[in-house]
Amino acid sequence: MRPALALCALALAACSRPAAAPAPAAAAPPAAATVPADVLAALDAPWPSAGPDGRVPGELARSELPLARPGKWTLTITHDGRSETREICENGEFPDFAPDPSCPNVILRRAPSGFTVDWRCATATATARMFLRAQGDFATAYTADTVLRTVATGGKVTVTPAHQEARRIGECG
To answer: What pTM did the predictor assign?
Structure first.
């Protein structure tokens, strides 16, 4: 699975799964709680408005997105207090950042050393907003921090943070 798609799959899974039971008071916070404060705060930012040209200020066209170099990558995703590492083959093609095809509201923007993805969706059972910030050279390594907030009908709120680290390790074979 491609790195960006791995994060989007996590987002879609979080939209559809029931919330986990609260951790005991003495439990240590999960590793994923280290998502930077500005990434968490992005969930509360107003949805950006397009300018007269139909684009949001700083918005990237698909052709401007820094893509991971094709090849074999080691990918570690930390969420829900657990880390999973696997090897993947990156094909260098543009990833689909909308985890749900019925919700194509995705804005890609420039960020220092990378880009951000802002996605939102409303269905009959929940609303969701995901924010991702990826940084690195995308030829040899990058990191990404993601947070997804879902609000179910009835008001139950679930926030799912994740951290991803990727390093290119060679050619796919």
So the answer is: 0.76
In the chain, where the domains are located: 3-17+31-44+59-170
The tokens for 43 are 């969930």
Q: How far apart are CA 152 and CA 128, in angstroms?
A: 9
Q: Who's near 101: CB < 8 A, 6+ residues apart?
A: none
Q: What is the pLDDT along the chain (173 residues), one digit of tens a residue?
A: 444 434 443 443 333 333 333 333 333 333 434 678 888 888 888 888 888 888 888 888 888 888 899 999 999 999 988 999 999 999 988 877 766 777 878 899 988 889 999 999 988 899 999 999 999 999 999 999 999 999 998 999 999 999 999 999 999 98
